Amino acid sequence: MKLMKVLSILLVCLFFFGCNNYDEFKEVPYKGQLEGKFIEISYSRINGFSGKGSSLTFQDDGKVISQVYENIYSHDTINKESQISREKLENLAFQIQENKYFELEDSYDCRTQNPKDCLTDQDETEFKVTIGDKTKTVKEYDDHGPKVLRHIQNLLTEYAS
Questions:
Q1: pLDDT tens digit string along 107-133?
Q2: Where are the alpha helices (DSSP H) in 20-124?
Q3: Helix axis angle, 86-98 relative to 147-160, nearest 10°?
Q4: What SS3 class is residue 4?
Q5: Is 20 exposed, middle or buried (0-12, 13-18, 19+ CB in 10 A)?
Q6: Which residues have a Cβ under 8 Å from the Cβ of 25 and sit 6 or more positions away?
Q7: Sheet (strand 107-109) strand order
Q8: What is the pTM of this model?
Q9: What mean pLDDT do residues 49-59 have?
Q10: Domain boundaries, the chain
Q11: Torsion angle of alpha carbons 33, 37, 38, 41, nearest 10°?
Q12: How many CB atoms sit inside 10 A of residue 101's CB?
């Protein structure tokens, strides 16, 4: 019985740490490749059950708009604005581009792909990136997309703070 408990704990630890290891994503040195290109990046994540969520928008002028939705159904939001440098915005967009964002599928939705493995009322996430004349939106339900989406989510959070 003790052995089963220990194995269960080890499996949970391996699964937990294995799923959250982003060491494979290395920052690529940015050398001005996106200078002068229009850049806009947005990310939103909403939980269908609780109605809570958040969004981040990085505008071309470096303005960062952060919103926290206490309840999307009653439109209760907490808004915060900040500013990042143009170089930092370009670097963020470059890192997203280098992680092959524009090659991802448009949707990762377990409700249509694997309904038996899908929980209802989970988080719905949307990423939208525009660099120059290229725009791509990727939607995801219940974190069923590739690991790179978690990495991009972490980058956005890091650059916004």
A1: 988 787 777 777 767 789 999 999 999
A2: 86-98, 110-113
A3: 170
A4: helix
A5: exposed
A6: 99, 148, 151
A7: 76-83, 63-71, 53-58, 39-47, 123-131, 134-141, 107-109
A8: 0.80
A9: 90
A10: 2-160
A11: -10
A12: 20
Collapse the DSSP code of 70 into the 3-class scheme (helix H, G, I; strand E, B; otherwise coil) and give the result: strand
Distance (Å, rounded) from C-alpha 22 to C-alpha 96?
14
**Amino acid (one-letter) located at 22:** Y
Average pLDDT estimate for 86-103:
96
Task: Give the C-alpha separation, 125 to 107, whole Å.
Answer: 10
**CATH 3.30.1560.10: does it fit domain 2-160?**
yes
pLDDT digits (tens, 9 = 90+) for 12-47: 443 444 445 556 778 889 999 999 999 999 999 988
99 phi and psi angles, rounded to 5 deg: -90, 20
Where on the phi/psi map is residue 119: left (φ > 0), alpha (ψ -120 to 50), or beta?
A: beta
Amino acid (one-letter) located at 63: K
CB 108 within 8 A of CB 145: yes
**Encoded amino acid at 66, one letter:** S
DSSP states of 117-148: G--SS-EEEEEEEEETTEEEEEEEETT-S-HH
Q: Which residue has the tokens 């001005």?
A: 32
